[in-house]
Amino acid sequence: MKTAYTNARIMDPATGYDAAGTLVVSDNIIEAYGADVDTSGCTESIDCGGRVLCPGFIDMRAHAVDAASALAGGITTIILQPDQTTTIDTDAVVERIRHRSVDSQIVSVYPMGAATQGMNGKQIAEIGQMQQSGAVGFTDCNHAVADAQVMRRLLEYAGHFDALIVQYAENAELGAGAIAHEGEIATRLGLTSAPAAAEAMQIDRDSRLAELTGARLHFALISSKDGVVAVRAAKARGIRVTCSTAPHYLHLNDNAVEGYRTFAKVRPPLRSEEDRLALIEAVANGTIDTLVSDHAPKSVDVKRLPFAQAASGIVGFETLLALSLAPVHSGKIDLMTMLKALTINPAKLLGLPTGTLAVGSFADFVIFDPDKPWRIDADTLISSAKNTPFDTLPVQGQVWRTVADGVSVFERV
Amino acid sequence: MNTHSTDQSSYPRADVDPPSGKLFPHKHLLGIWGLDPTAIKHLLDVADGYVDLNRKPVKSAPSCAGLTQINLFFENSTRTLMSFEIAGKRLGLDTISMATGNSSIKKGETMLDTAATLNAMHPDVLVMRHGDSGAVKLLAEKMDCAVINAGDGRSEHPTQALLDALTIRRRKGKINGQTIVISGDVAHSRVARSNIYLLNAMGARVRLVAPPTLLPADVGELGVEVFHHMEDGLKGADVVMMLRLQSERMNGAFLPSLREYYHFWGLTREKLKAAKDDVLVMHPGPMNRGVEIASDVADDLDRSAIEEQVEMGVAVRMACIDILTRDLRSGAGS
C-alpha cells in the first residue's frame, strides 16, 4: 500500500531539507520525497494544505507512556525514564517494556535504565545487559549521582559500552530539600530554595569526569544561565557533553509559583527571567541539544497540597510543539533549529534509526500547522492527568496528523 | 464603670468604625502581604479599643456570642493558641481548639479533606497554623468561613506583626518614620516576613541585622536595609525586634556556636548603646536568654516591651475576629 502526502512543506532536520513537495510512503517505509516525485501506484493521496511535514518528535524524557497524548503532540518515540513503579534497573524490566511497546505498535517506547541500582547513587546498575535488552541511556532521573567516585566509575564503565549517561544537574547538598529557585520570590513565599550555582557546579564537576573518562554525558533539563555557560565551556573544551531543556523553562520564570501554584512546581525549579532568556538563546545557538517534555502526569490529589508536599512535574506531550514554537514565532529561534532539537539530535544521541525523513527509513512523521492559533485547555487534554500550568494560554502551532510506522495514528478533525 | 456590659457601646466604636464602606475588605486574614495601610490601621484602631477592655476586671464583650471558632494547629504552640482562645472567649465565641500535631494527616486524611470536614460543621472563624508555607491559603480556598493565619511555615504570621505594630504605635505614638531593627534568624522566620511587609506599608525604615547564613536570598528586594554588624545596624534605632533562634539552627550548619552567636549578635546593654536612648526592645517569645538577648535587656522595665506584646496579642486577635465576622453578624454574610 502506497500513500502520497502532497502539498506539504517538507522539513528534514537531518539534512536541512526545507521545500514544498510530496512524500510517498510505501507500507511503513518512506519511499521518496521532493518537489517532483512519482505518485503513480499510490492508493491514497492526502493533501497537507501547505503544512509542515517533519520527522515524528522524539521525547527524550517522559515519566509515563501516555501514548494517545504523545501522538496528539506529534511524538512518535518516547524515552521512558526509569522512575516507574518498578524501577527500570535490570534487563528483565527493560525487556518487558520493549515487548509491551512492540505489541502496541503505536508509539515507540525505549526505556532508559537506572544508572545505579535502585537509583541509590551507590552501586552501578547492569548497564551492559540493559543495553543489550534495548535500554538507550542510563540515568538516575531526578537524582544526581552525587558521589564523585561512583560517577567516575559509572562513566568509565558506561564508556566501555558507549552508553549514554544522563545526569540530573543539581548538586545534591545545595539542592537538598529545595523546591524553588533561590531569589526574592522564594524568600517572600518562605520556600526552601537552591541557587542556580547548584546546577552549574554539578555540570562543572561531571564535565571534568567526562573528560577524564572519555564517556558520553548528557545533562537533563538545564534550567539556568549558569548551567548554559557551564555546558558551553565544556563543549568548547571538546568534552563529549550534551544537554536538554524543556519548553516550560523557555516559557515561565519563578513568578509562576506566586500564590503557591503547585502546577508550576517542577524539578529543577523555574528560575529567573534572565535564566529564561539565556535558555532560549542557548537553544537557538545549539548549546542546548534537545528539547524534552518531561511529561509527568500527576493527579490533583498529589498536586492540591501545600507547596512543599505537592508532587513536582507537569504534563508536557500535547503542549510540547506549541510551546517550543513560541520562541520561533518571536524570531528568537529558527524553525529548523527547533525541529532538530526535537528529532535528529535526540535520535543521534540515543542511536535511534528515526528522527529523519531519509528515504528507506521508517515512516514516523508529523504534519503540523506552525501558525494555527489555539488556546490550551487543561480539560480537553487527552493526557491521563491535567496538571499543566498553561491552562487557557493562547499559543500558535498545532499538530494536524501524526503518522507512526506508516499508519495515521492521530488526526485532528 | 466596671459593670458587666453585654454590648460594645461601653467603648467608643464610632471613633474607629467607618461610616460606610469597608476598611478591611477581605474575607480572610492570610497574611500582611497585599493589605493596604488603611486596612492595617483599621485593625490596629479596633485593637486599641480592646486593649482598654482587656484591662477592665470584666473583660467580656460577647458581641460574637453564638459564633463558633475553631483553632486548628498542625504545629505546636502554647502562646499563640492561648491568645486566640482567650480572644475568642472574650468576644463570646464558642472556641474549640485542636492541636493535632499532624495527627489527622498521619491517618492518611489530606488537609483538604480535613478542611471539608471542618467546613461541614459550620464554624464562623477558623484559626490555623501549619508547618508548610502556603498551607493556610490552600485550606482557606475550601472554607466558607473567615480564616485567620496563625503562622504557616516560613511564610507569614500576620497577627504577630499586628501586635508588634500596635505595641510600637502605643509606645512611640506612630510607626511612620521609625527606624526599626529586626535581628536574628530572618531566613526561617515568618514573624520577620510579616513584620517587614507591615512596617514597610506603614512607612517605617526597616533594617535587618543577622549573620549572612540566617538571611534569605535577595532579602534586600523586600525593601529593607541589610546589616551584618550589630552595632552598625543598631545605630540610631528606635525599636529593636529580636527573633528567636531555633535550637536546631544553633549548632554547626548555620552558626559555629551559641557562644559566638551571643558574642556578635546577642542583644546586650553594651551593643544597645548604639541605638537611641529610648529604644524599645521587643521579642515575639519564647526567649532564649543569653542566646539572642541578655537577661538584663529583656527585663529592663524602661525599654523592654516584651510582656506588653503578649497583652497586645489578645487585643489584636480580638480585633481580627471582630472585623472578619462583622458582615456575618450584620446579616450580609452567608
Distance between the termini of chain A: 24 Å
Indicate the radius of gyration of chain A in whole angstroms: 21 Å
Structural class of chain A: alpha/beta
Q: Strand pairing plus helix content of chain B: what structural class?
A: alpha/beta
Oligomeric form: heterodimer
**Order of the strands making up the biggest sheet of chain B:** 7-6-5-8-9
The major β-sheet of chain A equals: 8 strands, mixed
Distance between the termini of chain B: 36 Å
Task: Explain what this protein looks like in three dimensions.
The complex is a heterodimer of chains A (413) and B (334). Chain A is of the alpha/beta class. Chain A has helices at 67-72, 91-104, 127-132, 148-160, 172-175, 184-189, 197-213, 225-236, 247-251, 273-284, 300-303, 320-329, 335-342, 344-350, and strands at residues 2-12, 17-26, 29-34, 44-47, 52-55, 57-62, 75-80, 108-111, 138-139, 165-168, 180-181, 193-194, 217-220, 241-245, 290-291, 365-375, 394-404, 407-411. In chain A, strands 1, 2, 3, 4, 5, 16, 17 and 18 form an eight-stranded mixed beta sheet that branches. In chain A, strands 9-10-13-14-15 form a five-stranded parallel beta sheet. A three-stranded parallel beta sheet of chain A has the order 6-7-8. In chain A, α7 (197-213) packs parallel to α8. Chain B is built from 13 helices and nine strands. Chain B has helices at residues 37-54, 79-90, 103-106, 111-120, 135-140, 158-172, 190-201, 230-234, 258-265, 269-272, 295-298, 306-324, 326-329; strands spanning 68-73, 94-99, 125-130, 146-152, 179-183, 205-209, 225-227, 239-242, 280-282. In chain B, the strands form two sheets. A five-stranded parallel beta sheet of chain B has the order 7-6-5-8-9. Chain B has a four-stranded parallel beta sheet with strand order 2-1-3-4. In chain B, α1 crosses α6 (158-172), α2 (79-90) crosses α12 and α6 crosses α12. Chain B is globular and about 55 Å long. The two termini of chain B are 36 Å apart. The model of chain B is unreliable at 1-15 (pLDDT under 50). At the A-B interface, α6 of A face α5 of B.
